[in-house]
Amino acid sequence: MENLSNLEYMMKFKPNQTRTYDGEGFKQRAACLCFKNDREDEVLLVSSSRHPDQWIVPGGGMEPEEEPGGTAVREVYEEAGVRGTLGRLLGVFENQDSKHRTYVYVLTVTETLEDWEDSVNIGRKRKWFKIDEAIRVLQCHKPVHAEYLRRLTPRCGSTNGNTQEPTGQGDNTPLHQTTSHDCSLPRLHR
């Protein structure tokens, strides 16, 4: 690693990482809102690899041949050191600035590791936040991540049959989500 700058090393440099893109040139990513329990009132955030004093939702790029749900589970294991039960797909969020589309899932944590890959390799931290506090913490530097939590709605029954459709809207706007059980999702206005 002598040819890498300290910044590259701290940014989780993976020499064999292959990025995957959709047909419109957006990098494909997946993430999880990790909750302590089914009440979904406390969410786990991790420190950023680029800015260790800032908090983010754990997630990362999809590998070739990997499904979004598998990516989400792998990323929270690597970044947050947790395992759990993968729940519903909350939505697919588009970030025009960085050309990312991120599948965001809900995960109920069932196991928390004492030491995990990113805590050992890059000193990543994790912390539980109440939802309102997490939104405030994320809003400054990761508004798209704050939007994940704003999209969170109380559970109202089955969400089977969720479909995601691009809306073609501007910066940091989540893609349109249609569900078989619309729980009176708040409409976003810009």
Features:
seven-stranded mixed beta sheet; 190 residues; 31% strand; two-stranded antiparallel ribbon; alpha+beta; 9 strands
Q: Which secondary structure elements does this structure contain, and how are they paired or packed?
A:
Blueprint: H1 6-10, E1 27-35, E2 42-47, E3 55-56, E4 59-61, H2 68-80, E5 82-95, E6 100-112, H3 117-122, E7 126-130, H4 131-139, H5 143-151, E8 163-165, E9 176-178
Parallel strand pairs: 1-6
Antiparallel strand pairs: 1-2, 1-4, 2-3, 2-7, 5-6, 8-9
Helix pairs in contact: 4-5
Domain Nudix hydrolase: 27-153
Enzyme class: hydrolase
Cofactor: Mg(2+); Mn(2+)
Structure notes:
It comes from Clarias magur (Asian catfish). InterPro entries: DDP-like_NUDIX (IPR047198), NUDIX_hydrolase-like_dom_sf (IPR015797), NUDIX_hydrolase_CS (IPR020084), NUDIX_hydrolase_dom (IPR000086). It catalyses: diphospho-myo-inositol polyphosphate + H2O = myo-inositol polyphosphate + phosphate. There is one protein chain. The protein has 190 residues and is α+β, with helices and mostly antiparallel strands. It is 22% helix and 31% strand. The chain contains 5 helices and 9 strands. Strands 1, 2, 3, 4, 5, 6 and 7 form a 7-stranded mixed β-sheet that branches. α4 packs antiparallel against α5. The longest helix is centred in the middle third of the chain and has 13 residues. The protein is globular and about 35 Å long. 30% of the residues are buried. The N terminus and C terminus are likely disordered.
